[in-house]
TrEMBL record, chain A:
<dbReference type="GO" id="GO:0015990">
    <property type="term" value="P:electron transport coupled proton transport"/>
</dbReference>
<feature type="transmembrane region" description="Helical">
    <location>
        <begin position="317"/>
        <end position="338"/>
    </location>
</feature>
<dbReference type="InterPro" id="IPR036927">
    <property type="entry name" value="Cyt_c_oxase-like_su1_sf"/>
</dbReference>
<dbReference type="GO" id="GO:0004129">
    <property type="term" value="F:cytochrome-c oxidase activity"/>
</dbReference>
<comment type="similarity">
    <text>Belongs to the heme-copper respiratory oxidase family.</text>
</comment>
<dbReference type="GO" id="GO:0009060">
    <property type="term" value="P:aerobic respiration"/>
</dbReference>
<feature type="transmembrane region" description="Helical">
    <location>
        <begin position="245"/>
        <end position="269"/>
    </location>
</feature>
<dbReference type="GO" id="GO:0005886">
    <property type="term" value="C:plasma membrane"/>
</dbReference>
<keyword id="KW-1278">Translocase</keyword>
From TrEMBL, chain B:
<dbReference type="InterPro" id="IPR023471">
    <property type="entry name" value="CtaG/Cox11_dom_sf"/>
</dbReference>
<dbReference type="Pfam" id="PF04442">
    <property type="entry name" value="CtaG_Cox11"/>
</dbReference>
<keyword id="KW-0472">Membrane</keyword>
<dbReference type="InterPro" id="IPR007533">
    <property type="entry name" value="Cyt_c_oxidase_assmbl_CtaG"/>
</dbReference>
<keyword id="KW-0186">Copper</keyword>
<comment type="similarity">
    <text>Belongs to the COX11/CtaG family.</text>
</comment>
<protein>
    <recommendedName>
        <fullName>Cytochrome c oxidase assembly protein CtaG</fullName>
    </recommendedName>
</protein>
<keyword id="KW-1133">Transmembrane helix</keyword>
<keyword id="KW-0735">Signal-anchor</keyword>
Length: 527, 188
């Protein structure tokens, strides 16, 4: 730790160490941030390839490419890898890179723990992916791993799955502790809480959500482990346990988890839209309170995932209304983003395109969420493709477009070069069209009753499924273009100024591009 | 070094929160049972015998109780009730026999798990005697008739006219090595 803090005592700043060990031993927030981002992109491609297998199988009715057992492993690991391996680490990577730069801190508060929390991730996902090659196959019980499907009836590899979740959870918890300590302790003088950029605010709240619910996830997989190996009966009805209780504990983690995946994207979009509207963010204070309100509400709505398990009518009503209440703070946010753009001097560079698409498409996902929140209607929608359409609309153009927008917005700061705007716009339009083609028809087949997680379907769903698959392939291939754009940007391109965006504000734009290895070794003054 | 010191309180508090939330995850287990018991939700009935002090029969109401016997996945026993349903008055003590048969060539231990629907009736369904309070041990080819004696509380909400008592029979031979060992010893 002192290596980082002591640098300003020397006349020269340390550069990065040489060779491969730089990455293994680094405690530098920028190195670790880059590793998180690269790791999450690798997981994005891996989880994406699994989605390609799923969509290829669903291209036509009937079984063509894979057997149902393998199909189930694909849907399960696709979900797990995208949630825990792609979206969450990508946001932690952005936090590592940007939070110290945005609050004028020299580094993260706990740099060594930062290194450890990153290196746990390759272990966790190495373990998870290895289960696919084990006897009996990998996890095949859905990413929600409902017991007793994931205990009594699980493949033997489930123990490895449990340890992988433990490792990923420990990594997230340590990352969250680090982020909270950084934000609370290392802000530059004058940077009061209500002057923090919104990305920092949303991450602070996300980190508290992580601290609160990741231990519950660790607890529930520990109970599974005990049921499987130590003869307990947490979820085994024969021994006095209850499978429905699994769902309660899981979703007590699972619902805040969905906000963990979206709140940092809210923050990033709240940085980007003002920059390209050349106006300050409309309603900064209400944005902060809305984020906190969403985080609070996320703890009292979990049972809307399980309306059909048979909960009392008063319970159904409570969870229905509480869920609908979330539309209010979310509506405040959408209103603020639109008001920020209203009468702004708008330009549509790639970050802004992704951010505007985020606002529109996330709202569509929010609306289908409201439909699902209606308890009596949910009996029809439950476990159909309508649910798949809903959560892909909030996660793909929500979380992932938020990550793309952030990547393009801050790439000049990271690399010192401008990315290729034409290619980036191509990436945007291909992603936008591909993603809508893939997920919009899922609303229709879902409403018509096509169940999720099934490798075969009624021929009446054939046309829409073919369209979905074509869109998914298009979206998938387009992400290789993103990889190319990023590599091209690292290798060279137009030199980026310290602040390459006309309207961008914030401390991160006061340091040169690319950001030097050590920044803010003397804290800046914030007025 | 001042940063390192100032990190300590916040990190300590956060780590304590993490430990607390991990414990809370486990606390949800008893909490869940307490909630289900207190609110009579989830169709769970009491696991111990009910003692009736004063008999009070409400002859103005007639209820229909239906019996369902299900075998859990992988359970080889035959298992069914003596009759599909019976009619009774609230407060009346009635009995139903369930028949079980072990067709396999090894001794087995089984546990029946009851559930009452509608769920809100569960708290009013009292069992004075039930084969579900203990495990059943059957030798290869052995059969048994197992009684359940029950009373439906006259305080049962009046809109409930039809109840279902469902049993699921689980193979718990592996979980009950002692009972299984005793049973095997008897067989030889």
């Amino acid at each position: 730790m002192s290596a980082v803090i002591d640098t300003h005592h020397h006349d020269h700043a340390h550069g990065p160490a040489k060779g491969l060990m730089r990455w293994v031993l680094t405690t530098n927030h920028k190195d670790i941030g880059s590793m998180y981002l690269w790791f999450s992109f690798a997981m994005f491609l891996l989880g994406g390839s699994m989605a390609m297998v799923i969509r290829a199988e669903l291209f036509q009715p009937g079984l063509q490419l894979v057997q149902p057992e393998y199909f189930n492993q694909m849907t399960t690991t696709h979900g797990l890898i995208m949630v825990f391996g792609a979206v969450m680490p990508a946001f932690v990577g952005l936090a590592n890179w940007m939070i110290p730069l945005m609050i004028g801190a020299p580094d993260m508060a706990l740099p060594r723990m930062n290194n450890f929390s990153f290196w746990l991730l390759p272990m966790a996902f190495g373990l998870l992916v290895s289960t696919l090659f084990m006897e009996g196959g990998g996890p095949n019980f859905g990413w929600t791993f409902y017991a007793p499907l994931s205990t009594t009836y699980a493949p033997p590899s489930v123990t490895f799955f449990i340890f992988a979740i433990h490792l990923a959870g420990i990594s997230s918890i340590m990352g969250a502790i680090n982020i909270i300590a950084t934000i609370l302790n290392l802000r530059a003088p004058g940077m009061t809480l209500m002057k923090m950029p919104l990305f920092v605010w949303t991450w602070l709240i996300t980190a508290f959500l992580l601290i609160a619910v990741m231990p519950v996830l660790a607890g529930v997989v520990t109970m599974m482990l005990m049921d499987i190996h130590f003869g307990t009966s947490f979820f085994n009805a024969a021994g006095g346990g209850d499978p429905v209780m699994f769902q309660h504990i899981f979703w007590f983690f699972g619902h805040p988890e969905v906000y963990i995946m979206i709140l940092p994207a809210f923050g990033a979009v709240s940085q980007i839209i003002p920059a390209f509207s050349r106006k300050p963010l409309f309603g900064y204070t209400s944005m902060v309170y809305a984020t906190a309100a969403i985080a609070f509400l996320s703890f009292i709505v979990w049972a809307h995932h399980m309306f059909t398990v048979g909960i009392p009518i008063t319970g159904e009503l409570f969870f229905m209304y509480a869920t609908m209440l979330i539309a209010v703070p979310t509506g405040v946010k959408v209103f603020n983003w639109v008001s920020t753009m209203f009468r702004g001097a708008l330009t549509f560079e790639a970050p802004m395109l992704f951010a505007v698409a985020f606002v529109i498409l996330f709202t569509i996902g929010g609306f289908s969420g409201l439909m699902l929140a209606i308890a009596p209607a949910d009996f029809q929608y439950h476990d159909t493709y309508f649910v798949v359409a809903h959560f892909h609309y909030v996660l793909v153009p929500g979380a992932i477009f938020g990550i793309f927008a952030s990547a393009y917005y801050w790439l000049p700061k990271w690399t010192g070069h401008m990315y290729d705007e034409t290619l980036a716009k191509t990436h945007f339009w291909m992603s936008f069209i591909g993603m809508n083609l893939a997920f919009f028809p899922m609303h229709f087949v879902g409403l018509a009753g096509m169940p999720r997680r099934i490798p075969d379907y009624n021929v009446m769903f054939a046309n829409f499924n073919m369209i979905s698959s074509v869109g998914a392939f298009m979206f998938g291939v387009t992400q290789l273009l993103f990889l190319f754009i990023v590599i091209k940007c690292i290798k060279g391109g137009t030199k980026a100024a310290a602040n390459p965006w006309e309207g961008a504000e914030g401390l991160e734009w006061t340091v040169p591009s690319p950001a030097p290895y050590h920044t803010f070794t003397t804290p800046p003054e914030v007025k | 070094m001042s940063e390192q010191q100032s990190n300590k309180p916040v990190v300590t508090r956060l780590v304590l929160t993490v430990i607390g939330m991990f414990a809370f995850g486990f606390l949800m287990v008893p909490l869940y049972d307490v909630m289900c018991d207190a609110l009579g939700i989830n169709g769970k009935t009491s696991g111990t015998a009910y003692r009736q002090d004063v008999e009070h029969i409400d002859e103005s109401r007639t209820l229909r109780v239906q019996f369902v016997a299900t075998r859990a996945q992988g359970m080889a026993w035959d298992f069914n009730p003596d009759a599909e349903q019976l009619s009774l008055h609230p407060g009346e003590t009635r009995e139903m026999l369930f028949y079980a048969h072990n067709p396999t060539d090894r001794p087995m231990v089984a546990q029946a798990i009851p559930s009452v629907s509608p769920a809100k009736a569960a708290a009013f369904f009292h069992k004075t005697e039930c084969f579900c309070f203990t495990q059943q041990v059957l030798q290869p080819g052995e059969s048994v008739e197992m009684p359940v004696r029950f009373i439906v509380d006259p305080a049962l909400p009046t809109d409930v006219k039809h109840l279902t008592l469902a049993y699921t029979l689980f193979d718990v031979s592996e979980r009950m090595p002692d009972k299984l060992a005793n049973a095997s010893a008897q067989a030889h």
